[in-house]
Design goal:
Blueprint lengths: L5 E7 L5 E8 L4 E4 L5 E14 L2 E6 L3 E4 L5 E5 L5 E7 L2 H12 L12 E2 L2 H16 L3 H19 L12 H14 L7 H8 L3 H12 L3 H18 L4 H7 L5 H12 L3 H8 L1
Antiparallel strand pairs: 1-2, 2-8, 3-7, 4-5, 4-6, 4-7, 4-8, 6-9
């Protein structure tokens, strides 16, 4: 193996055994193989070429790739400079579930006719979502990121694009979701639980919540936690205790989020109110 090559392969819990890959390859080549589900990714650097459906295709930096379930394909570098990419491998069940959430009914599985796509906005969305799935400990953030990117893939590039289902009483649904987060802000709330309380699908809750509040549910939850943290700090509660009391993993997690919203770390804020 080339010593410069790097790869990380893992599963994201809670997404029907969703598998992910982040890798840099120079001399590595993939033999002909298939996946039971999809193989979807973005090229971050360099270029990859691969056999797929009787032809050789090349994906350059910034382009997206999509392999449909059960299709034979390969993979290797175009040049000696290699390629860096991030991939996800969603199963058919997961993709059908997201499509069902979008349409409000059972729907056929998405089919992507083009194995290589130019869509810079979606490529950046995919890159950020992949990093969230790798690093975030927030159920809401991870589930939102996955639905955002897979929903966009289906709407923009599936051959059989679904028609978005419309809901009545959208403002009521978002109000219920906000009330739930304001009550359960110490919990690692899941998007599916939140959507069930609101009475709409997870995909639509994210879309409507963002449209009405200006932020997705996980950022709204963070906002609530920071407001509660400010109140506790003003009462003289130690920062470490505050972090756990409002639902953050630890003090450093609170500090990072606090500064991004308030503009100063909790310690500085504590000095200003003491």
């Amino acid at each position: 193996m080339n010593p410069r090559e790097r790869s990380k392969y893992w599963r994201a819990e809670g997404f029907d055994d969703l598998e992910l890959l982040s890798a840099t390859y120079f001399t590595h080549t993939f033999d002909r193989h298939i996946h039971e589900g999809y193989a979807i990714g973005v090229i971050l650097q360099g270029a990859e070429k691969f056999y797929y459906r009787g032809a050789i295709h090349a994906a350059q930096q910034g382009q997206l790739v999509a392999i449909n379930p059960g299709e034979i394909h390969t993979g290797e570098a175009v040049t000696h400079h290699g390629w860096m990419y991030r991939m996800i491998y969603p199963g058919i069940t997961l993709m059908r579930q997201i499509a069902r959430e979008m349409t409000g009914k059972d729907w056929q599985i998405p089919y992507f006719p083009n194995p290589v796509m130019d869509d810079p906005e979606l490529a950046e969305l995919f890159r950020r979502a992949h990093m969230v799935l790798e690093h975030s400990q927030s159920n809401l953030e991870r589930e939102t990121a996955l639905r955002d990117v897979m929903g966009a893939f289906i709407l923009r590039h599936a051959e059989n694009r679904p028609r978005i289902h419309l809901y009545h009483n959208e403002q009521r649904a978002v109000r219920i979701a906000r009330d739930y987060l304001e009550t359960h802000y110490t919990e690692n709330v899941t998007l599916e639980t939140l959507a069930a309380h609101a009475g709409i699908s997870p995909f639509h809750l994210v879309r409507l919540f963002r449209a009405q509040t200006g932020m997705p549910p996980h950022l709204y939850l963070t906002h609530i936690r920071i407001m509660r943290a400010k109140a506790l700090l003003a009462l003289g509660v130690p920062i470490t205790q505050v972090a756990l009391a409002v639902g953050f993993v630890d003090q450093s997690h609170l500090t990072r989020r606090f500064k991004r919203i308030v503009g100063v770390p909790p310690g500085h804020y504590l000095q200003s109110v003491s």
